[in-house]
Amino acid sequence: MGPLIGEDGVARCPWAGGAGVMRDYHDEEWGRRVHGEASYLERLTLEAFQSGLSWSTILNKRDAFREVFHGFDAEAIAEFDQGDVERLMQEPRIVRNRLKIEAAITNARATVGLRDQEGLEAFVLSFAPAEPPAWSDTDEMATMSDDSKRLSKELKKRGFAFVGPTTMYALMEAIGIFDPHLVGCHRRGLG
């Protein structure tokens, strides 16, 4: 399926056709480059929490995630202990999954560890595809790539968790490492 024309007369990727949080995310964020460690850690964390759930569920809980994870300040999250895990397991405004909460803490600690090298942002950007995809139809779209497999493998080597190749591919799309919008979508080529 190619881009669909919404009730507002604008062509969009099919998953973002109707008014609401998904369309807003598509139009305002998805596929746009983000900057800074906290932005990268936020997206990495939210992609991990999304695994097995709908993205709209995560978007609707995003403000609460930002609050309980201190604006995705890696140092603050890296200091979390078992008491914090238990507190978050009782927080109804977020996804309460112990493994994902523990992964968020693990990933914050690994992010702090990357500061002595290139840092999380530069590290992730180093896996940008040499030839970005340009799909016209959802049937052509991938859910992982050689680049996302390499990113996943290298993040795991550096102590990150919940960073499988499909999740890393979704991250690469979300943060604009390449333009994920279908050819014909009004957002294609706008970075």
TrEMBL record:
InterPro entries: Adenine_glyco (IPR005019), DNA-3mA_glycosylase (IPR052891), DNA_glycosylase (IPR011257). Transmembrane segments: none annotated. Pfam families: Adenine_glyco. It comes from the Bacteria. This is DNA-3-methyladenine glycosylase I. It comes from Nocardioides endophyticus.
